[in-house]
Design goal:
This protein is of the alpha+beta class. The protein has a domain of about 110 residues. About 45% of the residues lie in helices and about 20% in strands. A hairpin with a 5-residue loop joins strand 3 and strand 4. The protein is globular, with a radius of gyration of 19 Å.
Length: about 160
């Protein structure tokens, strides 16, 4: 690791969540957009979210919420991600909603796909302007004996006719 990389790591380590989010927003966006995003989202995510996720995740989640707000007719937003190290789930599903839901509300949809919910992480995200949004991060397991390729046909390539 170079001296510059070490200095960058130390600077990131001593920054507050808000400062880190503002710095990442400045890296990703124009100055005007970064200022708006950091003002609105810097304190929006609760402490238990901040323990598990990085500011890069928070900015990705904020972008999903902003899309939800600007395109409500499109319905809830979804995001899939591989599990982190030590996570027993096969897959993580993030649901971005503008109203709270219970696991009972979402379970039928997940059951329809043959998936099992292993755990749920629910967060109320309240922006600086007082808007409350709801993030549900679900740990999912594939059906017994299934693999992702067998479960999801969209990952297969069409076969050529003989």
């Amino acid at each position: 690791m170079s001296t510059q990389q070490l200095q960058d790591e130390l600077a990131r380590a001593v920054r507050s969540w808000s400062e880190s989010l503002a710095a990442e927003a400045a890296r990703r966006y124009s100055r005007k957009q970064a200022d708006r995003i950091s003002t609105r989202w810097a304190e929006a995510f609760p402490e238990d979210y901040r323990v598990l996720y990085e500011v890069t995740d928070a900015l990705d989640d904020a972008a999903e919420f902003e899309t939800l707000e600007h395109e409500p007719q499109a319905g809830p937003r979804l995001g899939f991600a591989p599990p982190q190290n030590g996570d027993p789930a096969d897959l993580r599903l993030k649901l971005y909603l503008d109203e709270p839901k219970t696991l009972t509300d979402t379970l039928p949809m997940i059951d329809d796909f043959g998936l099992e919910v292993l755990d749920e992480r629910a967060y109320t995200v309240t922006t600086e302007d007082g808007v409350s949004l709801y993030l549900y991060d679900l740990g999912l397991c594939y059906p017994q004996g299934s693999t992702p390729k067998r479960l999801c046909r969209c990952s297969r390539r069409p076969t050529e006719p003989s």
